[in-house]
Design a protein that fits this description.
The structure holds three protein chains of three kinds.
Chain A (H helix, E strand, L loop, with lengths): L1 H5 L3 H22 L9 H12 L9 E7 L2 H21 L2 E6 L4 H16 L9 E6 L4 H9 L1 H4 L26 E6 L5 H12 L3 E5 L4 H4 L9 E4 H27 L4 H13 L4 H4 L10 H12 L8 H32 L5
Parallel strand pairs in A: 1-2, 1-4, 2-3, 4-5, 5-6
Chain B lengths: L1 H28 L8 E7 L8 E6 L8 E13 L1 H26 L4 H14 L12 E6 L5 E4 L6 E11 L26 H22 L10 H16 L3 E4 L8 H20 L3 E5 L2 H17 L11 E3 L4 H15 L3 E5 L5 H11 L3 E6 L5 H7 L2 E4 L1 H11 L2 H34 L2 H14 L3
Parallel strand pairs in B: 7-8, 7-10, 8-9, 10-11, 11-12
Antiparallel strand pairs in B: 1-2, 2-5, 3-4, 3-6
Helix pairs in contact in B: 2-3, 4-12, 5-6, 6-7, 6-11, 8-9, 11-12, 12-13
Chain C lengths: L1 H24 L4 H36 L4 H19 L25 H32 L5 H16 L2 H6 L14 H36 L12
Classes of the chains: A alpha/beta, B alpha/beta, C mainly alpha.
């Protein structure tokens, strides 16, 4: 046995990994079950920064959304991009999409299709969001954008001159954005945005990135990087926060329309969203007497409606992640058992 | 009658008293708006990169506990005269474009095509959209305890006027102060905020040059043994003995990345050793410019090894810029050809582990070097030797053994000592400040953080 | 010849480096640095032609020599030419809505174009597959490399366990019994993971990054001043 383990063909390890990843994907795909997420302060910081963007200036925020990744890392990063667009859309921020990666425009289109076109059809292209597409030149593009954005981006992806796009009025350089939100898979990515935009012009900057990149970016948090999402874990935490907030926000809007004061509406919505099954009971209490029957129905609907699948990708992917990590722990223990057994026999390592 | 009058007076008095009370109550609810601040002034920030204006004022006479803060507003008055002249020229260009469109249409070109051609002309020489003098734009709201504001993000060479208003704790707004005189946030000829960086640059450069000169003058320079570089000869020798090739990967970035340049430098030494041992070295590259540089270097190495005839440029070739396309090619090649030695020197990303594990599976001796900290763990786990960060940059000096190159490493150490000194000073100051709460030390720590490190 | 291969390249390197440094400190020259960067982008764009030419040469030679695996070279060439043709001529691309009658106004990668199809159904799955191979290699590398050989290795091993478990819900499950708000709340695996990443990892990464930054500064200076010419093929 020990001989077999000692000369273990790595294809056995590959097979075990394939099962640990593949089986949970199938099970979660069939049942829709997700593991509970506890958001870390890093994800909360990311969420809060997007949430409060533009508040200091008392205006609708201009968010530069840079999606610098490709299909290879989309599994890890796409849920972050989708949640980011989801939060911005619900909050009513203006989104300016760009990419420093050649295949980035596809990633932008995917997020726009999944969130804006499907769930926020009222958003108008050119007024609420614009796709400036890909620009070659890596960090040079960021440097130039800091001085004059129109030098690098003369048209959007559809070829419309920027001066003809309403939401581009008053946007001349990076300093006209209230926040830069970036999703990065490598170079050029988070580090370049920190060095050449966030630090140079003191612009709030949040970034989501692959797991291997995250350790390199921790030193910049929280001074030059105000929010950080690392790997699918960060994506799942952020997704969890956004989904909860979106539900609460939608419910608060119904309550506000029904005569609740703003702060009371948010408070009640948060309490109701945490216990969706009790909403129907609540609607018959005296507290809900100001609400009309339509509002009550809407409220119950919002509290109990299932979250669309595209907003659960991150949390669903934590299932395979869990089993893969457990396998890694098992393999490390196994490797050490073999190592010590060999040493006892005098084999050494 | 009198009685009647008396009877009627009481309710009237009650009504009047009620009305006075109500109006008093209303007055207390709708408190008077706060007073605006006074003595507003705005000056262009001197010695900066442009686009920044300091706005100062005297606090409002409204008690601070009744204030939420101050709102700073700016109005863009447009360009300065020189820029206006440029803009007039641009306007003329725009008009010319319109004329082009009309002429094209007149020449029988379809209107849409005419518009398209005119658009292409516009793209080729885009006119900056003319921004008319705008209305007041809020720059931000700051605490009522502050009496100054640094307005950033303004455009250089445009004129701005500023005003400030107080915001009451009940969100009522004061009148705006009289606007300031127009200010142009010009760029100075030198950005003083970057002076600490310039000094650091000069000190480090001076230290490097000083030790280069000293080394040339005969000062002995010692460098510790770097196992990964010492193993180069062993790896090349092994490949020769086994009759298999050497694979050299120069990272996946272009020549503008210094890691690629450092990788090409190491390639020079490896290929020279390979030429001396008569081993075959293969260099697939991910960028065409790297291919050209690598060919030059390898050719030169074969010349200096006295074997120009053995140089084969076809072994240094371009594969693809696409990261995983490149990895797929190299992994496939490794599995088929089973190189005896693999070198990974340059900037690597997710492909690092795929390459190193494939190399490990074919039993190659592997030496890696990168300055991407996130990839170091993968190389350390899968390779025999790894050059970590600065070791990789020191490789050129180490391998060449030239005194001036080694001297530069010594100069680099001075920079490291300086960085260490600043870290110790900063840590000590911040710790003492945290214990004593001294405001003087707090200023010193802030100066270190904001001015020196912020440059 | 020496002038062309040594002196001029070194002069260009020195001047470009100097321009970049000056542009960082003197606002008036900030656009010079930008221009130097643009020059490189122009050169890099031309290099695509060089790369394409080399690709053709290498694989045509393999086919003509009928060397081992020459069939794969045929596949490379067919894919290369087909993608180039489909992309350059915008086959199947819908016209731009702003300019519906203008030929080639459509987006190359627009939904429905052949290029988009190749991207969506060939390129995307292939790159995702290559990236996902990492999961398998990470497991085999961990099995081989994480051995408790000495004290440092034991530390590394312990940290690996905390990070691996703390990153998934298993970490929460294992240390759920420690109250999050209590004095030992930081010992919960998910909190310990963040602490390790933010404190120990940051300290180590910063040290490496300072070393790298100084290495880059010193190497740049050597290259700018022509002390290190090895990248131009001058040998040792």
């Amino acid at each position: 046995m020990m001989n077999f383990l000692n000369t273990l063909d790595r294809r056995w390890i590959f097979l075990a990994m394939a099962l640990c990843v593949g089986v949970p994907i199938l099970v979660i795909g069939l049942t829709g079950y997700t593991f509970p997420e506890t958001p870390t302060p890093l994800a909360e910081a990311f969420f809060n920064e997007v949430d409060t963007a533009g508040e200091a200036k008392g205006r609708r925020a201009n968010i530069l959304v840079a999606l610098d990744f490709d299909p290879a890392s989309a599994g890890e990063l796409n849920p972050m991009a989708v949640s980011l667009v989801h939060q911005c859309a619900q909050k009513g921020h203006r989104m300016y999409f760009i990419s420093l990666w050649p295949v980035g425009p596809q990633m932008i289109m995917e997020s726009v299709d999944k969130v804006i076109k499907r769930h926020y059809p009222e958003m108008v292209y050119g007024e609420d969001y614009v796709n400036l597409g890909f620009k070659a030149g890596n960090e040079q593009v960021i440097k130039v954008m800091g001085i004059d954005l129109t030098t690098e981006f003369r048209t959007d992806v559809e070829g419309t001159t920027l001066s003809k796009i309403p939401m581009m009025q008053g946007i001349t350089n990076l300093e006209d954005f209230d926040l830069i939100a970036e999703i990065s898979a490598g170079y050029p990515g988070s580090k370049e945005w920190v060095l050449y935009a966030a630090t140079q012009y003191n612009i709030p900057f949040v970034s989501g990135m692959t797991g291997v990149q995250a350790p390199q970016l921790y030193p910049y948090f929280p001074n030059q990087l105000q929010g950080l999402l690392g790997a699918i874990k960060g994506a799942a935490e952020y997704e969890f926060l956004v989904n909860n907030w979106v539900r609460e926000d939608a419910m608060a809007k119904v309550l506000e329309a029904g005569g609740f004061p703003e702060s009371k509406a948010m408070e009640t919505a948060a309490a109701l969203a945490s216990k969706p099954q009790q909403v129907s009971t609540w609607t018959v209490t005296a507290e809900a007497s100001t609400l009309g029957p339509e509002a009550k129905t809407k409220l119950i609907e919002l509290a109990t409606a299932p979250i669309p699948g595209e907003y659960l990708e991150g949390q669903r992917r934590m299932g395979p992640q869990l089993f893969a990590h457990l396998l890694m722990v098992f393999l490390i223990i196994l490797g050490n058992v073999i190592f010590f057994a060999q040493r006892r026999r005098g084999g050494g390592a | 009658m009198l009685q009647m009058k008396k009877r009627n007076t009481l309710p009237a008095l009650a009504c009047a008293t009620f009305a006075v009370l109500v109006s008093l109550l209303a007055a207390s609810v709708e408190a008077a708006p706060p007073e605006p601040p006074t003595n507003l002034a705005a000056i262009d920030k001197p010695w900066d990169g442009g686009g920044v204006v300091f706005v100062t004022w005297d606090a409002s006479t409204t008690p601070i506990d009744q204030l939420q803060g101050y709102e700073i507003l700016a109005k863009d008055l447009g360009q300065t005269p020189v820029e206006l002249a440029d803009q007039t020229a641009e306007q003329a260009d725009l008009e010319a474009k319109d004329q082009t469109e009309t002429i094209l249409e007149g020449e029988g070109v379809a209107p849409q095509e005419a518009r398209q051609r005119a658009r292409i002309a516009e793209e080729a020489d885009p006119a900056v959209p003319v921004v008319e003098p705008t209305t007041w734009q809020s720059l931000g709201i700051i605490s009522a305890t502050e009496t100054s504001y640094e307005a950033t993000g303004l455009e250089k060479d445009r004129q701005y006027i500023f005003t400030v208003r107080s915001i009451g704790s009940d969100k009522s707004l004061s009148m705006m102060t009289t606007p300031t005189e127009p200010v142009v946030p010009e760029a100075a000829w030198f950005n003083l905020s970057k002076l600490p960086l310039l000094i650091a640059l000069c000190v480090i450069s001076f230290a490097v040059l000083l030790f280069v000169v000293l080394a040339r003058g005969g000062m002995p320079m010692n460098i510790r043994t770097i196992a990964g570089l010492k193993a180069v000869d062993e790896a090349v020798g092994r490949a020769t003995e086994m009759g298999r090739s050497i694979l050299y990967i120069n990272g996946i970035q272009d020549m503008d990345d210094l890691q690629t340049v450092a990788g090409v430098t190491v390639l020079g030494h490896v290929s020279k050793t390979a030429a001396e041992y008569d081993a075959k070295i293969e260099v697939p590259t991910s960028r065409s410019l790297v291919m050209t540089a690598a060919r030059e270097t390898v050719q030169s190495s074969y010349f200096s090894a006295g074997r120009p005839d053995a140089y084969n440029p076809d072994l240094i070739y371009y594969v693809t810029d696409e990261q995983f396309g490149f990895v797929a090619y190299v992994s496939g090649m490794m599995t088929r050809e089973k190189p005896a030695a693999c070198f990974y020197m340059g900037s690597f990303f997710a492909e690092s582990l795929i390459l190193a594990e494939t190399g490990n599976s074919v039993g190659a001796i592997q030496i890696a070097g990168t300055a991407n900290p996130s990839q170091l763990p993968f190389f350390v786990a899968a390779c025999d030797y790894t050059l970590i960060g600065e070791e990789f940059f020191a490789a050129s000096a180490y391998l060449s053994g030239q005194p001036d190159q080694l001297g530069s490493l010594k100069g680099q150490d001075i920079g490291k000592m300086l960085a260490g000194l600043f870290i110790i000073v900063g840590v000590v100051l911040a710790t003492i400040q945290a214990i004593t709460g001294s405001s003087g030390l707090e200023d010193a720590v802030n100066y270190l953080k904001e001015v020196i490190l912020g440059s | 010849m020496q002038i062309l291969t040594r002196f001029i390249p070194l002069l260009i390197t020195g001047i470009a480096g100097l321009v970049m440094i000056i542009s960082a400190f003197i606002p008036y020259t900030s656009e010079w640095g930008q221009k130097a960067g643009q020059f490189f982008n122009i050169l890099a764009a031309f290099a695509f032609v060089l790369g394409g030419g080399n690709l053709l040469k290498v694989h045509l030679k393999k086919i003509s020599d009928q060397s081992v695996g020459w069939g794969y070279s045929g596949v490379v060439l067919i894919c290369f030419i087909a993608t180039l043709f489909v992309g350059l001529f915008k086959i199947g691309a819908y016209p731009n809505p702003n300019f519906p009658n203008v030929p080639f106004s459509g987006e190359t990668q627009g939904t429905g174009s052949w290029f988009w199809w190749a991207y969506e159904y060939v390129f995307k799955p292939l790159t995702a597959t290559m990236f996902s191979i990492l999961a398998f290699y990470v497991a085999s590398a961990a099995f081989r490399a994480f051995r408790a050989k000495n004290f440092e290795a034991i530390l590394l091993l312990g940290t690996a366990f905390i990070i691996l478990l703390g990153s998934v819900s298993a970490g929460v499950f294992v240390t759920n019994w420690i109250p999050n708000d209590g004095p030992f709340g930081d010992l919960r695996l998910e909190n310990l993971r963040i602490y390790i990443m933010q404190v120990f990892n940051t300290a180590g990464t910063r040290a490496i990054m300072i070393g790298i930054a100084l290495g880059i500064a010193s190497t740049s200076l050597k290259i700018m001043l022509g002390i290190d010419r090895s990248f131009l093929g001058s040998g040792d």
